[in-house]
Write a structure and sequence with these properties.
It is a single chain. 41% of the residues lie in helices and 26% in strands. It is α/β, with parallel strands linked by helices and 273 residues long. The chain has one domain: 3-Layer(aba) Sandwich (Rossmann fold), CATH 3.40.50.300. The strands form two sheets. It has a six-stranded mixed beta sheet with strand order 6-7-8-3-9-10, sandwiched between helices. Bound molecules: adenosine-5'-triphosphate (ATP). The site of adenosine-5'-triphosphate has 13 residues, from strand 1, strand 2 and helix 1.
Length: 273
């Protein structure tokens, strides 16, 4: 096992919009490098304005998008070499996504437990002694729910916050080492956001899972993150531990972060989300 969980090295992604010859080139991500330490789970917040390249970076880390240049290694393995079904499944064991809209993550016509049992069957070896019901219930309990509460229910019967918890429970069924959460609280009622963000802290501390928290919400990023990486126009303009970015911001966007977090109404909002 490598000491470096994730190694993102000089990664860029350029999209071509329109025809291949006449098209406009969009540099969505430019030359981004950072690492996550395998021995010290952490929450890394990737923040930036809309269009700054956060989602494209997250999709490359999830191996959904291929970089135009640069290299991503997970536990020492180059993501570019993970193409076959078995290797993909092994990668998905370790790296799980959480997306913005939990209502889009589940088919409204299917009961929620179907997803959980399907995922359980997919990831858990048939040789395991743990009964599927127990495994699913345990995963739900880690996010403050239970199988009893979720059983027989359809997605629309839960709040956005509860449904995002179910999505996180489903991600936990594979025992991931890294969760990539792209705007996981932006569609959730403000009063429920803090519980999801606090859940990330518990996953880091109790289960040793590292979390990449992609957001444009400065206040929750500062509240939850160990480290913050600020993106603008595809590039990382500043990164460091959350306190340093807040107390000694170098870039105008980081100063906005400080101002947003220090303004009393925003600070109160962060405390109440
Ligand atoms: N598949 C694609 N084809 C063409 N351009 C794309 C594609 N995906 C993203 N882009 C462009 O790349 C840039 C970065 O987009 P990206 O979604 O990564 O930013 P973001 O910071 O996540 O924004 P948001 O906060 O709005 O989600 C934008 O200009 C976007 O329009």
């Amino acid at each position: 096992m490598s000491d470096v969980l994730l190694d993102v090295s000089e990664v860029s992604k350029t999209f071509v919009r329109g025809g291949l010859l006449s098209g406009r080139r969009i540099a969505a991500v430019r030359d981004v490098s950072f690492r996550l330490d395998a021995r010290r789970p952490e929450i890394l917040a990737v923040i930036g304005e809309t269009g700054s390249g956060k989602t494209t970076l997250a999709r490359m880390i999830l191996n959904i998008e291929t970089p135009t240049s640069g290299r991503l290694l997970f536990d020492g393995v180059d993501l570019a070499t993970i193409r076959t079904g078995a290797r993909r499944l092994a990668f998905m064991h370790d790296v799980q996504p959480i997306f913005q809209n939990p209502f889009e993550a589940f088919n409204p016509l299917k009961r929620l437990e179907r997803y959980l049992f399907m995922t359980q069957r997919r990831f858990v070896a048939s040789t395991t002694q743990v009964a599927p019901e127990t495994a699913v219930d345990e995963a739900l309990r880690k996010v403050g729910l239970s199988l009893k509460e979720v059983r027989h229910r359809y997605p629309h019967e839960l709040s956005g916050g509860q449904l995002q918890r179910v999505a996180i429970a489903r991600a936990l069924l594979s025992n991931p080492r890294l969760i990539v959460a792209d705007e996981p609280v932006s569609m959730i009622d403000a009063s429920l956001r803090i519980s999801i963000v606090n859940l990330f802290k518990a996953l880091r501390d109790d289960l040793g899972i590292s979390i990449i928290y992609v957001t444009h919400d400065l206040a929750t990023a500062y509240y939850v993150a160990d480290r913050i990486m600020i993106m603008q126009n595809g590039s990382v303009v500043e990164s460091g531990d959350a306190k340093t970015i807040l107390t000694a911001p170098q870039q105008p966007y980081s100063r906005q972060l400080r101002d947003a977090v220090l303004l009393p109404d925003v600070a109160n909002r962060a405390a109440s989300v």
